[in-house]
Design a protein that fits this description.
Blueprint: H1 11-22, E1 34-37, E2 40-48, E3 51-58, E4 62-68, E5 72-87, E6 90-92, E7 100-103, E8 109-126, E9 138-139, H2 142-150
Antiparallel strand pairs: 1-2, 2-3, 3-8, 4-8, 4-9, 5-6, 5-7, 5-8
Length: about 150
């Protein structure tokens, strides 16, 4: 849910503040450094324990259907482009670098990327060790599955 108020200072919120203040680049080890899936690329730029930051780049004119990430909570931090985030049925159009929105585990979310495409950071806390957000997801409901099947390949 989008809120103009400060987020509660849970462990992910504290990590977000620390990472944004230091902008640490430590991708860690593992084979999932870069994930190319359909119209987006996720590049891991930080990993430590259950925390991870991925740089997400999305091609122009891309619709991301509503989906969930069952094993992670995240903040999506706007860096640039033409993005409309949808979280739990509410649209959020960032206009300034650094604006962010919280996405809780199993909260339906998606997005629309216009002519400029879009780039954002996904600042994540994982329940059982990090992997790529691009590989840990499922459609939010059967209507989204039907929409995805209707898109010409």
């Amino acid at each position: 849910m989008i809120s103009p108020h400060r987020p509660p200072l849970d462990s992910l919120s504290l990590f977000l503040q620390a990472w944004l203040s230091r902008r640490m680049i430590e991708p860690g080890v593992g084979g999932d450094l870069i994930q190319n899936i359909d119209n987006f690329t996720a590049t891991r730029i930080f990993r430590s324990g259950n925390y991870q930051v991925e740089l997400i780049s999305v091609l122009p004119h891309t619709e991301v259907p509503n989906h969930v990430h069952p094993h992670m909570d995240s903040y999506e931090v706007y860096l640039g482009g033409d993005i409309t985030f949808r979280v739990d049925g509410v649209s959020f159009i960032p206009t300034k670098v650094g604006e962010h929105i919280r996405v809780k585990s199993d909260c339906p979310h998606g997005g629309t990327f216009g002519a400029a495409g879009g780039v954002f950071l996904s600042v994540q806390e994982w329940k059982d060790g990090p992997q790529s957000a691009g590989t840990d997801w499922r459609f939010a409901d059967s209507a989204e599955i039907s929409k995805a099947k209707a898109v010409p390949q």
